[in-house]
Amino acid sequence: xxxxxxxxxxxxxxxxxxxxxxxxxxxxxxxxxxxxxxxxxxxxxxxxxxxxxxxxxxxxxxxxxxxxxxxxxxxxxxxxxxxxxxxxxxxxxxxxxxxxxxxxxxxxxxxxxxxxxxxxxxxxxxxxxxxxxxxxxxxxxxxxxxxxxxxxxxxxxxxxxxxxxxxxxxxxxxxxxxxxxxxxxxxxxxxxxxxxxxxxxxxxxxxxxxxxxxxxxxxxxxxxxxxxxxxxxxxxxxxxxxxxxxxxxxxxxxxxxxxxxxxxxxxxxxxxxxxxxxxxxxxxxxxxxxxxxxxxxxxxxxxxxxxxxxxxxxxxxxxxxxxxxxxxxxxxxxxxxxxxxxxxxxxxxxxxxxxxxxxxxxxxxxxxx
Length: 369
Fold this sequence. Notes:
The protein is α/β, with parallel strands linked by helices. It has one domain: Alpha/Beta hydrolase fold, catalytic domain (Rossmann fold). Helix content is 34%, strand content 14%. The protein has helices at 2-11, 29-32, 101-107, 130-143, 159-168, 192-195, 199-213, 215-223, 242-250, 259-262, 265-279, 313-322, 342-354; strands spanning 18-19, 58-60, 66-73, 81-86, 109-114, 150-155, 173-179, 254-255, 300-305, 326-331. The strands form two sheets. An eight-stranded mixed beta sheet has the order 2-3-5-4-6-7-9-10, with helices on both faces. Strands 1-8 form a two-stranded antiparallel sheet. β6 (150-155), α5 and β7 form a beta-alpha-beta unit. 41% of the residues are buried.
């Protein structure tokens, strides 16, 4: 029973979801050759031709690995704002961030979505760490010449690379938004009395032990066919609020990560390592961070759903009180799938880029002591 619950946390308590629609095949070299002078994101002549892959959108990092990416919005050379979207657990560069093309045209937004190490079409990183995630993001920005500063939006588990960016490269960030960010119960400054009785804490620790010490057993359980190991998660109200269930119902091709994908060793190893890094002890405590922008050079935001059953809003409220330089926004009927709400996505971008105050609807109505 304990093992089964640990597996449930590995899948469900992270809000794991996957777009089952396959990524489009690589387009021809003529249409995606990043070295072409007509390409909107073409690098300058100072970039090495070996760093950019002709025929697909990938860049080579300094350690030889490749990161795959896709672009949305306006061409980079016509943009006012350059934003990197950091996807979460079980997702990819093909995730849906529901920003309308009209909004991106209006504000001049260039969106860069990429496959984190081992996901999608990106090479795995056997040395994955909290630090390496920030290094990847910085290198990606430099290879694609996003400029001296850029914005970062981290979603769910993609918030731990975002925290790492805030810690290591704050001078490169024009602004940061974390949407339903994960909470690591191993953060030293997280009060015990705040998490006492939170079933997610004990289950996440069990899940971490299972993923770390018995990966073979975990993989067998997730891929065996005798029992439906993930069936309890499929549209289960215990893990999804009504708004999330509506997303699951109305979003074509949206389902939990399937067993066939986890049977591939590289896919399973990527998810396991990502989970272990995210929930193990970090080399810093986010709750002890000093405001990296004392002169308001940039802003940092957290967006949380009040009805989120994956990450409790009470913990996010504590984080925002502990770090008052973070601007906290709460969606009253929102769950863990906030990025599938176009209205919320527009509010996220307008607040991040223009400094607009979100509607009063997104302010917490009750303070938590």
